[in-house]
Here is the input.
Amino acid sequence: MAIIDTSVDINAPIDRVWDIISDLDNEPKFWKGIKETRMISRDGNVVTREITIAFRDSKCMQKITLKPKDGGSLLEVNWDVKMSGLAGMFTGMIKKHIRNGTEQALESIKQKAENS
Here is the structure.
């Protein structure tokens, strides 16, 4: 099991950021390596999703939290990655890949929100 926590400050209102992250049709523009997304729950500005990643169609849990911060927004993404069977020996590699992909996604979301 691997836990990944990432966040980014965005100089844009929460509503603008929410419009971007809730548009599942455009999600592939930001999130690479994701095959399928299934919404589990939404509680205010916290969304929990089950993500199927491209590596062996593994399922991971992702929590996205959006908070107001200094006239802008704080976007946090937390992953709970569990690789089963033989895939478990690749957990470290997968964790690094997901972290890099998440950091790139957050930067792309930030750019889109701040330049809209």
Observations:
- DSSP finds three helices and five strands in the chain.
